[in-house]
Amino acid sequence: MTKPIESQELMLLLLLITVILGSLTLLFITLQLYGTLQKLINPAQESKPTRSRWERFTDLKPLALEKDLQMAHAYDNIIELNNATPPWFMFLFYGTIGFGIIYGVVYHVAGNGQIMLNEYTQEAAVADKVREEYLTKAANAINENNVLALNDVAALTEGQKVFTQNCAACHGQKGEGGVGPNLTDNYWLHGGGIKNVFHIVSEGVAEKGMISWKKSLNPMQIQKVSSFILTLKGTNPPNAKAPQGTLENTLAVK
Hints:
It is a single chain. The protein is mostly helical. The chain folds into two domains: 7-109, no CATH class; 133-254, Orthogonal Bundle (Cytochrome Bc1 Complex, Chain D, domain 2). The protein is 53% helix and 4% strand. It is built from nine helices and two strands. It has helices at 7-41, 53-58, 66-69, 87-109, 116-140, 153-166, 168-171, 193-203, 219-231, and strands spanning 70-75, 78-81. Helix 6 crosses helix 9 and helix 8 crosses helix 9. It starts with 6 loop residues before the first helix and ends in a 23-residue tail after the last helix. Residues 249-254 have low confidence and may be disordered.
């Protein structure tokens, strides 16, 4: 990320710009004085026609001299003039070169400028932080009273990972049951439905040897694994454990 410009560096930059502008001003004044001295030393030059500053700046040629500027070719009786590039354009051209050099040094060498990549990186970091804060807040706001069953593939995939890592040891890789009950049939020991399953995963069942997962998993993770458990119903895996509990799946949360 780009480091911010410190006050000392800013003062040095302003001093450098001031020195450059002062040098250019001094050069202009010197040239003016030189021209004045030349006129005093050689008064005969005064008889020569002189052009105004505007004429010198634009390098406009009098119409009487256009015949000397005509090029040899002509197209449809249109004659092209061989005019030189006007000084104002060259001043602008060299000015852009000077600006480009200063820009390159400040933004790409010294690293004090905000180039687009740095701006994007900073804004993306801020957005990621805001997103994480929102997700954390949203995750912690979920409880057994407002939890809803999820059905999107991404959430269920994450829920499956949590199940495999934490639940499969007791309930089997496919929910067929083991130390814990079978999760694929229509029978429930503590009530079915997302609210009951969320409550059991969160609080555990001490008398049955099931630990509480609320200290290891956040509410959003519990919601996802509970939603995944509900998808196991009716899958009929091999070596499934015999049904336990009651067929009803609307028992109140205990």
